[in-house]
Design brief:
6 helices, Gamma Fibrinogen, Chain A, domain 1, 29% helix, nine-stranded antiparallel sheet, 2 domains, alpha+beta, two-stranded antiparallel sheet
Length: 325
């Protein structure tokens, strides 16, 4: 304050013209100097406040930038982690695991994990690769498959024993891989494998190209591609009909089920009026013959196994032809 005062006084003194009759009283001169000094101090304070405000704004923007950089890094890390998740048997193989067991599988569409049994030993005629994701399994009859619609949609059982992954999860498993085309995106459908083993030790399997479900048609099963394996007769109609899924409390509209045929009276399946399969039927014992109406049923079994024994094991599995992006 004193420094500004003396500086102003000196400047004004030097600026006063001499011998020109200028008369400025000491008191008036001091008041003007004091007022000017106060104005100068106020200007300095305003400049300081402006600088502080600018500094605060700058620091705020820097903090925002740091947060943005952190979020970008977090998203990049999350994306990298998601790319390394087990989305099919290929990722499991790449992680160095080759033993059949229950593994967490990441559903890309559902954005969540499911624990599911992976058959890492069975090969494929179509892809010449091992490893299948098992979404349906019958092993010991401990789980009751006579259930309603909600159970079949959500899933039930134990992945190590009798198990149904759930229609919604199965649907997501058929939509794991998207491939980029010139005109957009297309879903690469997985192959389907059905494994069958009788109480007499006889076993067979079937592989199908392009396993598809339609959510807007009550999980209707789509048309397959070619089929391979030992579990069918080439000149006989296929075991799967293109039907909507049915249970006792939600039946496919317009379908009447024949009395002596597989139907929703004891399980859920892609039933027709008199279909050729029902792997969710009643689990039968070692001394029984395969029951068309009530048991775990596969029409071709009567054609390939002369003993016609009931099935001890049955399972359904998916595998993608190759690893998608």
């Amino acid at each position: 304050m004193k420094w500004i005062y003396f500086q102003v006084v000196f400047s004004l003194y030097m600026a006063i013209p001499l011998n020109q009759g200028v008369h400025i009283t000491a008191t008036g001169f001091q008041i003007k100097v004091i007022n000017l000094s106060r104005q100068l101090l106020l200007c300095r304070e305003l400049i300081g406040l402006r600088n502080e405000k600018c500094k605060n704004i700058l620091e705020k923007e820097i903090r925002k930038l740091k947060v943005s950089l952190f979020e970008v890094g977090a998203k990049r890390n999350a994306l990298t982690a998601a790319q390394n998740l087990n989305t099919d048997r290929t990722n499991i193989h790449l992680s160095g695991k080759y033993v059949s067991d229950v593994y967490p599988i990441w559903l890309k569409v559902g954005y969540r994990f499911i624990d599911i049994y992976c058959d890492m030993e069975s090969g494929s005629y179509i892809t010449n690769k091992t490893g299948w994701i098992t979404f349906q399994q019958r092993k010991n009859g401990k789980i009751n498959f006579n259930r309603g619609w909600e159970d079949y949609v959500n899933g039930f059982g134990n992945p190590n024993e009798d198990y149904w992954a759930g229609l919604e999860n199965i649907l997501m498993l058929t939509n794991q891989n998207l491939i980029v085309l010139n005109h957009g995106y297309s879903t690469l459908r997985p192959n389907l494998r059905v494994d069958l083993k009788g109480w007499d030790g006889f076993n067979a399997h079937v592989e199908y190209e392009r396993f598809t479900l339609y959510s807007n048609r009550n999980y209707k099963i789509g048309r397959f591609g070619k089929r391979y394996g030992t579990g069918f007769q080439p000149n006989f109609p296929d075991a799967f009909f293109r039907q909507e899924f049915s249970t006792f409390d939600k039946k496919s509209e317009g379908t009447s089920f024949q009395t002596n045929c597989p139907g929703p009276h004891n399980s859920g399946w892609w039933f027709s009026e008199c279909g050729f399969s029902n792997l969710n039927g009643v689990y039968q014992g070692p001394n029984q013959k395969m029951s068309k109406r009530d048991g775990i049923y596969w029409r071709h079994w009567f054609l390939i196994n002369t003993n016609k024994t009931a099935l001890k094991h049955a399972s359904m599995k998916t595998q993608y032809p190759f690893r998608g992006n």
